Amino acid sequence: MARAPRLGRGGRRFESSLPDHNYTDLWRIVIKFILYLVRWQLSTIVMTPVIATIKNSPSIWGTKEDWIAVIVANLVGGAIFFWVDRFIFKSKAIEKWEILKKGRCHDCDKIDLVRRLVLAPGGYDRTNDTNPEYRCKECSEKKLLQLKRKKAIHYN
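Structure (tokenized):
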């Protein structure tokens, strides 16, 4: 049975960014976020004695306040850098290359380390390419210049 559309101000239809009854993607992000924060907390064991030494605490292991401060700082840092890292590693604003340690260059047939551009800014996406073309360093740089000239990729 289909649900009636939710209406917002002025009777306009309200669209939720989350699909109805399907929160698996949200839960996956929440679990990754929690694991990321736990990983950040592992540095607490190393950081607290360093902080204690720098501020001349009476004990090498620091005070209760030192531990609380480092735990809170790691929670804040983890909450910020989770999104920064996510942007860096999943963003289409950054080039993504696939590298083979040994392969044949598509252009010059040289057998060497070869690579192919998979994602680049401007909509260049060869993620699902069924016939990938790997190139040596020199040929891939030439191909990259060609793509920039054709405006297939661009950097803002």
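Helices lie at 24-41, 44-54, 64-90, 137-149. The first helix runs from residue 24 to 41.
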